[in-house]
Amino acid sequence: MTKDLFGKALLDYHSGNYTEDLITSTNISDEDALPLPYLFRDFSEMPKLEQKALQLCIGRILDVGCGAGSHSLYLQENGFIVKAIDISQGAIEVCKKRSITHAEVLDVLNETKSFDTILLLMNGTGIFQTLNQVSKYLNHLKSLLKPNGQILIDSSDIKYMYEDDDGGFWIDTNANYYGELDYFLSYKGEKDTPMKWLYLDFNTLYTACVSVGLQCELILEGEHYHYLARITV
Question: Per-residue pLDDT tens for 137-156?
Fold first, then answer.
């Protein structure tokens, strides 16, 4: 059971108790700070890839893994009806404190309503956790789309993290897909339960979409092998 340190950190920041950042790491990377102010950024501070995704939004929107609600807040302020969901109770409390009208603690697999746009940003493929669950999530997301609806999702191809000094790649072909990571989070000296987190290269996402009857289009490529994709029926 998670301690929801992510939610605690967001609540601390929003209530003016910002003293330190979240610390993240994975099984293939060292500890790194995740600055809390970054999670409360406004549109002008967002990467071009996120700005593009928000500009492409249409109709009724579902913001999956909304965090502090920065994307939802921008969309709501621009006249959209947005439902913000996250499995972090603290995150949803912050969303409500930031006046996001529709915010709910909910796993996307338990969502039942229909939307014109489903938004999964800040490595949206992460919630799939492992490669063998991608089809299950895509099928469910597909079931939530209204006619002519779209899924806007981003991720990164992290193959570069396995590159050696000679330009070769050290990837164990007998191991799981290289984008499947164990993700660790700590805050103020406390460690949360490790979780699975998936980075998906575009070609693998494209193939997974086709296998469940979805179309997948590359919209934008950002720095560090980061990309935005648009998925439609």
Answer: 999 999 999 999 999 999 99
Predicted confidence at residue 168, as pLDDT, reads 64
Pairing outcome for strands 226-232 and 215-221: antiparallel
Which run of H or of E encompasses 150?
A: strand 145-156
Nearest by Cα to 69 from 54, 58, 56:
54
The pLDDT value recorded for residue 7 is 98
Q: Apex CA 199: angle with CA 94 and CA 48, to 5°?
A: 65
The first and second tokens of residue 10, run together, are 């967001």
What is the residue-wise DSSP string for 187-217?
ETTEEPPPEEEE---HHHHHHHHHHTT-EEE
pTM for the full predicted model = 0.95
3-state SS, one letter per residue, for 26-49: ECCEEEEEECHHHHHCCHHHCCHH
Handedness of CA 196, 201, 202, 205 (dihedral sign): negative
Q: How many CA atoms lie within 13 A of 178 on its CB side?
A: 15
**Gap between the Cα atoms of 95 and 198, Å rounded:** 25
Q: What does the pLDDT read at residue 54?
A: 98
The β-bridge relationship of strands 115-120 and 29-34 is unpaired
